[in-house]
What we know:
Layout: E1 2-7, E2 10-13, E3 18-26, E4 33-39, E5 46-52, E6 57-59, E7 67-72, E8 77-82, E9 91-98, E10 103-105, E11 109-114
Amino acid sequence: xxxxxxxxxxxxxxxxxxxxxxxxxxxxxxxxxxxxxxxxxxxxxxxxxxxxxxxxxxxxxxxxxxxxxxxxxxxxxxxxxxxxxxxxxxxxxxxxxxxxxxxxxxxxxxxxxxx
Length: 115
């Protein structure tokens, strides 16, 4: 089992920045990739960014150049640095960890971007 706890969400003006954190605990050795997803009201959950155990990263087109995913292995934490935020970035942001056989989700953290 893997437990994930997100933090760092909040209210920010358009053009501002936020950094989300996802702290992992439990069977961390089994994780082969970590992800950030988001879900806006009335919309499907969408993949925002991914970081593999090897450190490779990928991003949704909508956030490329504005968001950066990174990790601190010593702290078992993955981050999502978000910049140049837009009102359309408003959503609940979720961290996910995947192993060979399981996917684990955090409880989510709300990001609201005002215009």
